[in-house]
Amino acid sequence: MAERPYHHGDLRSTLLTSAERTLAERGPAALSLRELAREAGVSHAAPGRHFKDKQALLDALALSGFQRLQVALEQAKDAQRQDSAGTDGTDTEGYLLALARAYMGFALPNAALLDLMYARKHDSDISEQLAAAVGDLLAIVLNAIAEGQRAGEIVEGDPGAIAFTVASTLHGFASFSANNTVEDVDGSLKDVVHFLMTGLSPR
After folding, report:
1. Are 171 and 118 in contact (CB under 8 A)?
2. Is the distance from CB of 194 to CB of 166 less than 8 angstroms?
3. Beta strand segments in 39-117, E
4. Comparing C-alpha atoms, which of 168, 183, 193, 182 is closest to residue 100?
């Protein structure tokens, strides 16, 4: 059988879209560049123009996920600031809730992708571009914590440690929600953010 020639308008985008669908439906083990090429109608060698191997494809998926999540958080941040414009003081709890809702809005329909993103995040061999995307995402949470501290609405202390607490809580909540453990996601999310803001000790 003759090898199909490489003719495709945007093969990289097509491969990533197909790979993300396969990831969601069958997991990372089912991903195959040869199979993706067959689905795209190109030669088995064509994906090599964009991804040298399966790991490069996984890295590209993770990078895309972090970039999309960052956009969602930035949009939520801007929308919340517009809503609170003209009010007195800083609504740190509202700010964190807006970020939490945006995070959940990405996490729930993209559970498999989120798992891949965090798996690659902790590997020592991630690319500089992927490491930078992780850093940009964490900076959004760090900035929210720092602004809350400046406004006197969050306790003093290492903003990185506080941001880690917030991020790990939201990620755990997303995992529970993805497994249908949480019935009222938005109502429970409000409670989670409220307890993060007020702490567990009685006042």
Report:
1. yes
2. no
3. none
4. 193
Helix, strand, or coil (residue 152): coil
Q: What's the predicted TM-score (pTM) here?
A: 0.85
d(CA 139, CA 146): 10
Residue 5: the pLDDT is: 44
Q: Which residue, chain included where needed, has tokens 């991903």?
A: 31
84 within 8 A of 184, measured Cβ to Cβ? no
Tokens standing for 137?
């995402």
10 Å Cβ neighbour count for 72? 18
The tally of CA atoms less than 13 A away on the side-chain side of residue 186 is: 4
Contacts (Cβ under 8 Å, ≥6 apart) of 130: 59, 62, 63, 66, 120, 121
* Closest to 56 (Cα-Cα) out of 15, 4, 107: 15
Residue 6: both structure tokens together: 């490489």
Side chain identity, residue 110? N
Q: Which position has the token pair 């003209």?
A: 86
The pLDDT tens digits for 131-180 are 899 899 989 999 999 999 999 999 999 999 999 999 899 999 998 998 88
Q: What is the mean pLDDT of the chain?
A: 88
> Among candidates 104, 113, 25, 102, which has minimal Cα distance to 61?
113
Model confidence pLDDT, tens digit, residues 99-141: 999 999 999 999 999 999 988 877 777 888 888 998 999 899 9
Q: What are phi and psi of 154, to 5 degrees?
A: -135, 140
